[in-house]
Design brief:
- The complex is a heterodimer of chains A (649) and B (113).
- By secondary structure, chain A is mainly α.
- Helix content of chain A is 73%, strand content 3%.
- Chain A contains 26 helices and 2 strands.
- Chain A has a two-stranded antiparallel sheet with strand order 1-2.
- In chain B, helix 2 packs antiparallel against helix 3 and helix 3 runs antiparallel to helix 4.
- The chains are: A mainly alpha (649), B mainly alpha (113).
């Protein structure tokens, strides 16, 4: 039993213990088991990393041969390289912190054991997704996280709208998964194997712009659109906020939604081979980033703001990937995991303090009441807004520098999104933590800081959000870009197929200007938010009082309504037509018609069955006569003819 | 021709084969007619025998005209089998009579649809 195998095994065991013994395990044991599984995985990850560091060679650890059909062979194997190590650190590290947080947050919930079982199952699926050595294992994990997402969004299944949100997430992801699956089939058809190493080895021999690779990458990206919530499949993620807050932090901010980015970085050779797909990815990312950010400005639910912000940040990651800056995109995955998990957990802490109130119009002035939460939340806000020296600045800036080189319009849109990001985050912060308290009396008396099991993860993530960016300094600081150096081996194949891979031709002066521009933009947005919400003290209007463009944005561009009208309604209409017309009239008619026909036959042919032997004998004789006539009728007629002629002579 | 059959004796050829065929056909048709029209099971059985014998007669005639004794041997087999068959048939008819007190086949219509 090697260390690599242990990593996903611990959460699986944790899930089995908590899941099967849901009724028997005592309340005090549940959390230690769940957290223990996650922490042990993290420890194993560290040990594997130390092993891996010595050689730096990709380790493929086969467990067993899974599917062998003819020449097609899929092994159940784990692959450890720079990319999966990084993902493992994010998943097990941030995951452990969120598990710890859940202990406090879900402590009074009736489904405490169930919750931890699901969390462990999710961890297991996600680990499979990033550790698998071929696309099929990735697909198992891909489906597994989808399932856990569904289970956890609908965790409080007493409320039917939460169940609807869960189903929406599940079904929208199915749409993407179909694309992913077709991509996998195309890979099998093209390369005859699913193992990463041999697929990428063969891909090296292809030309840039190869049409089949374009289709493969496009289909895989459709899968990523679903999981990573890009236009047009992003509307499930805001609804996913129906789940408990730790879920939003772990699944819908730090891990599952980044699996699309992981998949693209993993298949970087294929994407490098098809510039058309990359261009498409970049534009989708751009539009998603801007659109989601603009929606976030007018949201009044603390978790909804963060949800749209996640969609928007995922858009930035895809912009990075689309301009072939895979490292920058992935860098943003790492930093985003830190600060978005932090923000979500902070929001959870706020909700906890406000006794389950999520509307920021009813908050305000919480700064002095819940100090730790407020400070960590501020750190997260600064980090996501892209103000140096916190984490978000480095990764976002790197992406934008690459985009500037690639396409100026895209860069301008990215900047616009960046401005809006900073604005809505500080709007959220100011409305929640400054000014007067706007909630009810009971809420005011109830205000209290969360227990330490919740604040420790907050502080840890805050620390990571501060220093997380230092793993990738921009070139102009003449400091090492540790992440790029570490991840370089992953792109060997991409370098082989694309001569200019990874080279940036931006002047240092330009880069300085870009950096200062983005900081200035973030600062202007901050000041604007400050003036609006602190100095002028303006408050978001009640739901019925907004109009025009504000309403358009607050109602999310009516995308949900459009989807309802186009897809849901059509499907319903069709199903009504099929169910009430086609099924009852045509199908049932045909089936029953057959039955009636047989009945009629029985009625008529049954009359032949008289039971009288004589009649049967006559039938038999008649039949024999007919057969004889058929066989010898011609001769008979001829001989009769002969006789007739002889007579008439 | 390998096994040349011996020539047909003159005595036999004095009556043309057609007569035999005609007679056998007439008998056979009478048998069919009996089977079709009568209701009494025993008469039907007799009619069947008549048909069998018509065929037997045909067979004997052909074998004589070919000077081939095989046919005549077969005729004896057919007679033996027919006798056995009639025995079985009569046994069945007796059982029917015990059950129904009649051997009219039109009363036996339990199998009607």
């Amino acid at each position: 039993m090697s260390l690599i195998t242990l990593i996903p095994l611990f959460p699986l065991i944790g899930f089995l213990i908590n899941g099967l013994g849901y009724k028997k395990i005592s309340h005090s044991l549940v959390a230690p088991i769940g957290i223990g599984a996650s922490v042990l995985s993290f420890i194993c990850t560290v040990l594997v990393f130390l092993q891996f560091k010595e050689t730096g060679e990709t380790i493929v650890q086969p467990l067993f041969s899974w599917i062998t059909v003819g020449g097609f062979d899929v092994s159940f194997a784990f692959q450890i390289d720079q990319l999966s190590i990084l993902m493992l650190f994010i998943i097990t590290g941030v995951g452990s912190l969120i598990h710890l947080y859940s202990m406090g947050y879900m402590g009074h919930d009736a489904g405490y054991g169930k919750f931890f079982a699901y969390l462990n199952l999710f961890l297991f699926s996600m680990l499979l997704l990033v550790m698998g050595a071929n696309y099929l294992i990735m697909f198992i994990g891909w489906e597994g996280v989808g399932l856990c997402s569904y289970l956890l969004i609908g965790f409080w299944n007493k409320r039917s709208d939460f169940g609807d949100a869960a189903r929406k997430a599940f079904i929208m992801n199915r749409v993407g998964d179909l694309g992913f699956l077709i991509g996998i089939f195309l890979i099998v058809k093209q390369f005859g194997t699913l193992e990463y190493l041999s697929v990428f080895e063969q891909a090296k021999g292809l030309q840039v712009g190869d049409i089949s690779v374009m289709f493969i990458t496009f289909c895989l990206f459709i899968g990523a659109m679903g999981k990573s919530a890009q236009i047009p499949l992003f509307t499930w993620l805001p609804d996913a906020m129906a789940g408990p807050t730790p879920v939003s932090a772990l699944i819908h901010a730090a891990t599952m939604v980044t699996s699309g980015i992981y998949m693209v970085v993993r298949s970087n050779v294929l994407y490098t081979l098809s510039p058309d797909t990359l261009e498409f990815v970049a534009w989708i990312g751009t539009f998603t980033a801007v659109l989601a950010a603009s929606i976030a400005i007018f949201q009044n639910d603390i978790k909804k703001v963060l949800a749209y912000s996640t969609v928007s940040q995922l858009g930035y990651m895809f912009i990075g990937l689309g301009v072939m800056a895979y490292t920058s995109g992935f860098f943003h995955v790492i930093t985003h995991a830190f600060f978005k998990a932090l923000l979500f957990l902070g929001a959870g802490s706020v909700i906890h303090a406000m006794s389950d109130e999520q509307d920021i119009r009813k908050m305000g002035g919480l700064w002095s009441k819940i100090k730790i939460t407020a400070v960590t939340f501020l750190i997260g806000t600064i980090a996501i807004s892209g103000l140096p020296p916190f984490a978000g600045f480095f990764s976002k800036d790197e992406i934008l520098a690459h985009v500037f080189e690639h396409n100026k319009l895209m860069w301008a849109l990215g900047m616009l999104g960046s401005f809006m990001t900073s604005f809505y985050m500080f709007r959220l912060f100011f409305l929640t933590f400054t000014g007067e308290f706007r909630g009810s009396k009971e809420q005011k008396e109830h205000l209290h800081e969360s227990p330490s099991s919740m604040t420790i993860p907050l502080m840890a993530l805050a620390a990571l959000s501060i220093v997380g960016g230092f793993i990738g300094f921009p070139e102009i600081f003449h400091l090492p870009h540790a992440l790029a150096d570490f991840m370089a081996p992953i792109y060997d194949n991409s370098k082989a197929v694309f001569a200019g891979f990874g080279e940036v031709h931006v002047e240092h002066s330009t880069e300085w200007i870009l950096m200062l521009t983005s900081v200035a933009v973030a600062l202007v947005a901050l000041i604007l938010a400050y003036v609006l919400y602190v100095k002028q003290g303006s408050r978001p209007a009640a739901d019925g009082e907004i109009s025009g463009i504000k309403k358009w944005l607050a109602d999310k561009y009516y995308l949900d309504e459009a989807y309802n009208a186009v897809f849901v309604n059509t499907t319903e209409k069709l199903s009504v037509f099929f169910g009430n017309v086609l099924d009852t009239k045509v199908i049932d008619g045909a089936v029953n018609g057959l039955g009636t026909l047989v009945g009629l036959c029985n009625k008529w042919i049954g009359k032949l069955q008289t039971g009288s032997t004589g009649f049967y004998l006559i039938l038999m004789g008649g039949a024999i006569a007919v057969i004889l006539f058929l066989n010898m009728g011609n001769e008979l007629l001829e001989s009769l003819n002969h006789i007739f002629k002889a007579q008439t002579k | 021709m390998e096994n040349q059959l011996p020539a047909i004796p003159d005595v036999i050829t004095q009556i043309p084969l057609t007569n035999y065929v005609l007679l056998a056909s007439i008998l056979f048709v009478i048998g069919i007619f009996g089977v079709f029209t009568r209701k009494n099971a025993i008469i039907i059985l007799m009619s069947i025998e008549l048909m069998l014998n018509a065929v037997n007669l045909l067979m004997v005639a052909f074998s004589a005209y070919r000077s081939d004794p095989n046919g005549q041997v077969f005729v004896f087999f057919i007679m033996a089998v027919a006798a056995a068959e009639v025995a079985v048939g009569l046994a069945i008819i007796v059982m029917i009579y015990r059950n129904v007190r009649s051997i009219d086949i039109n009363l036996l219509d339990k199998l009607r649809g």
